[in-house]
Structures are given as structure tokens and as C-alpha cells.
Design brief:
InterPro entries: Kgd4/YMR-31 (IPR020373). With 121 residues, this protein is mainly alpha-helical. 36% of the residues lie in helices and 0% in strands.
Length: 121
């Protein structure tokens, strides 16, 4: 009985090439080959910022208002690109605070949408 179990042992259908080995050193980070040209050109500054933010993220005293004041009023820098916030609470509150639901909205959800909240009472 054991001979038939050994003979009919399951063999995986996937075949890997080469030996099983882990790389001895980590690879150097780089932009994706299909990344846009502006990312490829500015990747060195991005990785430097990423390394510095990951090492000082616990002691960071960054706030959205101080970051916005560095670029003037509003939440867009001079390049008109939106900010990337590492933590959600660094973003303006309208992006992460929930709005309160009214009783009408709660009733519409609880009824499964059977009541239309757009019509009057």
C-alpha cells in the first residue's frame, strides 16, 4: 500500500527555472521601466526624500498648515500638483472627516433604498 502512495505522489505542475536561492544583497531601488519621463528624471530626489521621511517619520512634526504656508495660501504648491500626505491626519480635514448623516439618509439606508430621500415628506 505504501508503494502505491509513493508512486502516485502528487507532483506540482509548475516548473521553476534555476536553483532555489535568495539574493545575497538587496537591489538598488530604481524607477519602473514604464514610469513617465518626469519620474525617471527626478527619481534620485524622490528616493532621498523617501529615505529621509522613513527615518524621521516617528519624530516628524509636519502639519498640513505649515506645509501649505511654505508654498503660500491654499493646498497646491507652485507646480499645481496636489500634496502627498504620509498620514491621513496631515491632510486637510475635509478629506478625511466624515459628514454627519441626517435622519432621512439613515432611514433610506435602513430601508434598503425603498424610500426616496429626494422627494418631500
Amino acid at each position: 500500500m505504501h508503494a502505491t502512495l509513493l508512486r502516485n505522489a502528487r507532483t506540482p505542475l509548475i516548473q521553476f527555472l534555476g536553483k532555489r536561492s535568495l539574493p545575497s544583497s538587496t537591489h538598488k531601488p530604481g524607477p519602473h521601466p514604464a514610469a513617465p519621463k518626469e519620474i525617471v528624471e527626478n527619481f534620485a530626489s524622490f528616493s532621498a526624500k523617501s529615505q529621509s521621511s522613513s527615518s524621521s517619520s516617528s519624530s516628524s512634526s509636519f502639519s498640513a498648515s505649515s506645509h501649505a504656508s511654505a508654498y503660500g495660501t491654499g493646498f497646491l504648491p507652485a507646480s499645481k500638483k496636489p500634496y502627498d500626505f504620509e498620514n491621513f491626519w496631515e491632510a486637510p480635514s475635509y478629506l478625511w472627516q466624515h459628514t454627519e448623516m441626517t435622519e432621512r439618509e439613515i432611514e433610506a439606508v435602513m430601508s434598503g433604498g425603498a424610500t426616496d430621500i429626494r422627494t418631500g415628506p
